[in-house]
UniProtKB/TrEMBL annotation:
<dbReference type="InterPro" id="IPR029055">
    <property type="entry name" value="Ntn_hydrolases_N"/>
</dbReference>
<keyword id="KW-0539">Nucleus</keyword>
<comment type="function">
    <text>Non-catalytic component of the 20S core proteasome complex involved in the proteolytic degradation of most intracellular proteins. This complex plays numerous essential roles within the cell by associating with different regulatory particles. Associated with two 19S regulatory particles, forms the 26S proteasome and thus participates in the ATP-dependent degradation of ubiquitinated proteins.</text>
</comment>
<dbReference type="Pfam" id="PF00227">
    <property type="entry name" value="Proteasome"/>
</dbReference>
<dbReference type="InterPro" id="IPR001353">
    <property type="entry name" value="Proteasome_sua/b"/>
</dbReference>
<keyword id="KW-0647">Proteasome</keyword>
<comment type="similarity">
    <text>Belongs to the peptidase T1B family.</text>
</comment>
<dbReference type="GO" id="GO:0005737">
    <property type="term" value="C:cytoplasm"/>
</dbReference>
<dbReference type="GO" id="GO:0005634">
    <property type="term" value="C:nucleus"/>
</dbReference>
<dbReference type="InterPro" id="IPR050115">
    <property type="entry name" value="Proteasome_alpha"/>
</dbReference>
<comment type="subunit">
    <text>The 26S proteasome consists of a 20S proteasome core and two 19S regulatory subunits. The 20S proteasome core is composed of 28 subunits that are arranged in four stacked rings, resulting in a barrel-shaped structure. The two end rings are each formed by seven alpha subunits, and the two central rings are each formed by seven beta subunits. The catalytic chamber with the active sites is on the inside of the barrel.</text>
</comment>
<dbReference type="InterPro" id="IPR035206">
    <property type="entry name" value="Proteasome_beta2"/>
</dbReference>
<dbReference type="GO" id="GO:0010498">
    <property type="term" value="P:proteasomal protein catabolic process"/>
</dbReference>
<dbReference type="GO" id="GO:0005839">
    <property type="term" value="C:proteasome core complex"/>
</dbReference>
<comment type="function">
    <text>Non-catalytic component of the proteasome, a multicatalytic proteinase complex which is characterized by its ability to cleave peptides with Arg, Phe, Tyr, Leu, and Glu adjacent to the leaving group at neutral or slightly basic pH. The proteasome has an ATP-dependent proteolytic activity.</text>
</comment>
<protein>
    <recommendedName>
        <fullName>Proteasome subunit beta</fullName>
    </recommendedName>
</protein>
<dbReference type="InterPro" id="IPR023333">
    <property type="entry name" value="Proteasome_suB-type"/>
</dbReference>
C-alpha cells in the first residue's frame, strides 16, 4: 500500500531501516504500533509493505525457510543469496493463482566480506541493490533529501539524523498522518533497535 512508508539507507559499516508503525485499512488506523520489520537471520532484516495478510504470511514464509537453510547446512545465507531466494519465491507466486502483493526492502550485513547491503524489491519481483530507497508516497518527499545529504561514510548518529530529517519532511508534506517510525540498525554486531522517531513538523 503506497500510504505506508519504508525507508532504507546503506552506509559503509551498517544499514538503517525505518518503517511507519501505522496499520491503515481504508480510512481507518487500526494499529499504531505495527512492526513491519521482520528479522530473517542474525544479520538480515526485511521491511514489508502491502496487503495486510500477504505481508505477514510472506515474511514468515521467507524467515522460516532461511532458518531451515541454516539448520540443514550449519551456516546462514548471505544477504545477496537471501535476496535471490526471496525474489525467486515472489516471482514463482506471481505466476500462480495466489500472488503476494508486497513491496519490500532487505537490509543486511555480510560478516564474511565486511560489507553492508540494501535491496529494494517490488511485487513484480524486480530487485535492485541500492544505497538508499523510500517506498510509498513518502518517497516522493524523502528521496531528494537523501540525494542531497547522503554520504556512505556517515556515522550512526549522522545517519539517524538523516532519517529524522526525512521523516520530518513526510510529516510536513504528506496529508496522511504517520506519527511514529520504528528504526533498526544492522551491522557486524547484529540487529538492534534504535529510538523510535516521532515525526515533528507542521504542515506547509
Amino acid at each position: 500500500m503506497a500510504l505506508e512508508c519504508l525507508i532504507g539507507i546503506k552506509f559503509d559499516d551498517f544499514v538503517l531501516i525505518a518503517t511507519d508503525m501505522s496499520h491503515i485499512q481504508s480510512i481507518m488506523v487500526q494499529k499504531s504500533d505495527d512492526d513491519k520489520i521482520h528479522k530473517l537471520s542474525s544479520h538480515l532484516v526485511m521491511a514489508v509493505a502491502g496487503e495486510a495478510g500477504d505481508t505477514t504470511q510472506f515474511a514468515e514464509y521467507i524467515a522460516k525457510n532461511i532458518q531451515l537453510y541454516k539448520m540443514r547446512n550449519g551456516y546462514e545465507l548471505h544477504p545477496s543469496s537471501a535476496v535471490h531466494f526471496t525474489r525467486h519465491t515472489l516471482s514463482t507466486h506471481l505466476r500462480s493463482r495466489e500472488p503476494y502483493f508486497v513491496n519490500l526492502l532487505m537490509g543486511g550485513y555480510n560478516p564474511a566480506i565486511n560489507k553492508s547491503e540494501l535491496y529494494y524489491m517490488d511485487y513484480l519481483a524486480a530487485s535492485v541493490p541500492v544505497n538508499y530507497y523510500a517506498f510509498g508516497y513518502g518517497g516522493m518527499f524523502t528521496l531528494s533529501i537523501m540525494d542531497q545529504d547522503y554520504h556512505s561514510n556517515m556515522t550512526r548518529e549522522a545517519g539517524y539524523e538523516l532519517l529524522k530529517k526525512c521523516i520530518g519532511e513526510v510529516k510536513r508534506r504528506f496529508i496522511i498522518n504517520l506519527p511514529k517510525f520504528r528504526v533498526r540498525i544492522i551491522s557486524k554486531e547484529g540487529i538492534s533497535d534504535m529510538p523510535t522517531i516521532i515525526a515533528e513538523g507542521e504542515a506547509a
